[in-house]
Amino acid sequence: MNNESSISEFILLGLFNPPELDIVLFFLFLVMYIITIIGNGVIMIITNVDSTLNTPMYFFLGNLSLLDTICTTSTVPNMLANFFSSKKVISFHGCVIQMFVFTAAMDTEFLLLTFMSFDRYLAICNPLRYKSIMRKRSCICMSAIVWSFGLTSSTFHTSSTSWLSFCDSNKINHFFCEVPQVLALSCSDTALNQMVLIFTDLVLGLICILFIFLSYLFIIIAILKIRSAEGKKKAFSTCASHLTVVVLFYGTLIFAYFKPSTLTSNADKEIAVLYTIVIPMLNPILYSLRNKEVKGSVHKIIFKRIF
Question: How does pLDDT run across 36-93, given as a tens digit for each residue?
C-alpha cells in the first residue's frame, strides 16, 4: 500500500488498432451509432404513438429499444472522442457513472428478454388466458421489476468497486469502463468483489437462460401440434425475432465469459464491440424486417405524418 495514490482519472487503452485506421473506425462506429439511435428511436416512437401496437409484446419491445439506446450511448460517444485524442482519459467519476449506466442496462436487458419469452409463451401456449394475464397493469409491474433489479444490481457492483483503493496503474485495457477491468487495477483485496460478480452473473444468466429454454421448449411443442402449415408459420413468426435477439445477446455474453484461453486479451474488446454496438444496432432491424405491423406503423407514422 506504500505506492497507493489518489487517482483522479483513468487512461482507456482502446481497441489497439493501428493509428492509420482511426479515421476509418471512427466513421464506421459513428454510422453504426447513428443507425442504432435512429432505429431504436423509431421503435420507441411507434410503440407509444400507434394504438395498433398497444400490446404487451410491443410494450416490452419499447423497453428493449430504450435499454439498447442507453447501453450504446454510455460507451460509444466517449470511444469516438478518444479516436482523435492524444490522451485517452476518463475522469474517475466519469468512469464510475459509465460503469453504473452500462451495468444497469445489461442486467436489466437480461431480465427483460426473459419476461419477453414468458409473454411469447402465454401468447402461443395459453392464448385464451393471455389478455387476462398480460394486462397493462401486469406489464407495468413486470417492467418495474426488471428496471429495479438492473438499477439495484448495478448500484451494488459499482459502489463496491468505487470504494476500493487504486494504486499507480490507471490504464484500463478496454475502450470503456467495465467492472472487471476496473477491479483488475485495484490494489485492495478484490477476491470478494470478483466472487460476488461471478456468482450474480452466473446465477442471473443461468436462471434466465433456463427459463427462456423452457419457454421455447413449450412453444415448439405447441407449434408442432398445430395442424396447418400456415398456422405453424404464423405462430413461429410471432417469436422468431425475439428468439434471434436472445441467441445473439446470450450467445455473445456466454462466449465472452467462457471463451478459450488461447484467445488474446484483445478478444474481450472485440466481443464487447458486439454487445455494446452491433447487437443494439441489429435489434430494431430484426424486429422491423420480420414484422409487418412494425413496418406498417413506420410507414404510417414516420413517412405519412412527419414527412
Answer: 999 999 889 888 888 788 889 889 999 999 999 999 999 999 999 888 887 888 999 9
CA distance 188 to 179: 15
- Sign of torsion over alpha carbons 150, 280, 44, 112: negative
Query: Which residue ranges make up each domain of the chain?
Result: 9-306
Mean pLDDT of 224-240: 81
**Global pTM?**
0.89
CA distance 31 to 2: 46
What's the rounded Cα separation, in Å, for the pair 50 and 31? 28
The rounded distance, in Å, linking the Cα atoms of 61 and 63 is 5
**Confidence (pLDDT) at 33:** 95
Alpha-carbon torsion, ordered 8, 11, 12, 17, to 10 deg: 170
**pLDDT score of 273 more than 80:** yes
Between CA 25 and CA 114 the distance in angstroms is 34
**C-beta of residue 205 within 8 angstroms of C-beta of residue 253:** yes
Residue of 146 and 195 predicted with greater confidence: 146
Spatial strand order of the sheet with 89-91 comes to 89-91, 9-12, 171-172
- Answer yes or no: are the C-beta atoms of 205 and 221 closer than 8 Å: no
Neighbouring C-alpha atoms within 13 Å toward the C-beta of 62 = 17
- Determine the CATH number of domain 9-306: 1.20.1070.10
β 89-91/9-12 pair status? antiparallel
